[in-house]
Amino acid sequence: MSTASLIDWRKLHGNAFEGARVLVTGGAGFIGSHLVEALSALGATTVVIDDLSGGDPANIEPFANVEFHQGSILDADLLARCTRGCRYVLHQAALGSVPGSVAEPRRYHDVNINGTLNVLEAARAAGVQRLTFAASSAAYGDSEVLPKVETMPTLAKSPYAAQKVAAESMLRAWSGSYGLDTCSLRYFNIFGPRQNANSAYAAVIAAFAKAVIGGRNPVIFGDGEQSRDFTYVANVVQANLLALRCARPLGGEIINVACGQRVSVNELADLCLEILDRRDLRPEHQAERAGDVKHSLAEMSRAKEILGYTPIVGFREGLVPTLRWYQQVLAGS
């Protein structure tokens, strides 16, 4: 299952990336592999760096014109070699769990801050045209103001969120100081095929899918009334491609990427049980987790104005193929 089954990337972007060389850090991971897939369909050559801590080479094996390098963004020499000749950089590599960052703040800081420094410096040295960064809606913290607008103050509740906010500032600084054109895309609760369901910190849709397909009750942390702007992965791919193609300089701009729809975790659990035809199961509630925010909903005027972005796949439209993909890969687990 892939984004290609839902999206005709050529229809959306024509020949805009034909022959381009693009570095995708974390390109064997969940979001990164979908970016690689789209770029491959668009005739680009993609260079992938991934340490495989959360990725899998099998995620990108089916795609043409991909150069894979196993390694870390902490390896500045490898990054420099891989970035040479690239027109664009899509920086997706990170340690990406809020609970994980609470447990191991120093390790997460090293990868998410020092690794980003290495990516920026490699891109600057290579003279790339533009760099986009996988920022996070975790930057907004627990502000009760909805929807979340990019001009709101950041209120990081976890080391992970603080690191993402710091990296946004670094991108803006590298644009201001060195002329490297950058853009931070604040992702809101991304889901889709190839998202790891076996991690101890699996995202909620992946965790629900694994439980229900395995015949177990899905676990909800807290009362389940917390809400999220769940965003199918093809929307993130579209936002990145639009950002790379944007005619005006972006200068470190911060832009929300989401669907603009609130769904509670209780509603999500019910939908998963319905789609997977397991009405015999019931959600189980456990204590809230440290660092989790209560509500999340994106305001997307800036994305539309600057990038021409609107969601291309809705929440339920993306949830069905996602759960079908988990049925294929988790059968019998």
DSSP strand count: 13
> Looking at CATH, which topology would you report?
Rossmann fold
Major sheet details? 7 strands, parallel
H/E element sequence:
HEHEEHEHHEHEEHEEEHEEHEHH
- Let me know the CATH homologous superfamily: NAD(P)-binding Rossmann-like Domain
Q: Helical amount among residues, as a percent range?
A: 25-40%
What is the topological layout?
Blueprint: H1 9-13, E1 21-25, H2 30-41, E2 45-50, E3 66-70, H3 76-83, E4 88-91, H4 98-103, H5 105-126, E5 130-136, H6 159-178, E6 182-187, E7 190-191, H7 204-213, E8 219-221, E9 227-228, E10 231-232, H8 233-245, E11 253-257, E12 263-264, H9 265-275, E13 284-286, H10 301-307, H11 315-330
Parallel strand pairs: 1-2, 1-4, 2-3, 4-5, 5-6, 6-11, 7-10, 8-13
Antiparallel strand pairs: 9-12
Helix pairs in contact: 2-8, 3-5, 5-6, 7-9, 7-11
Detailed description of the structure:
- By secondary structure, the protein is α/β, with parallel strands linked by helices.
- It has one domain (3-193, 230-261, 297-314): NAD(P)-binding Rossmann-like Domain (Rossmann fold, 3-Layer(aba) Sandwich).
- The strands form 4 sheets. The chain has a 7-stranded parallel beta sheet, sandwiched between helices. A two-stranded parallel ribbon has the order 7-10.
- It is built from 11 helices and 13 strands.
- The two termini are 19 Å apart.
- Helix 2 links the parallel strand 1 and strand 2.
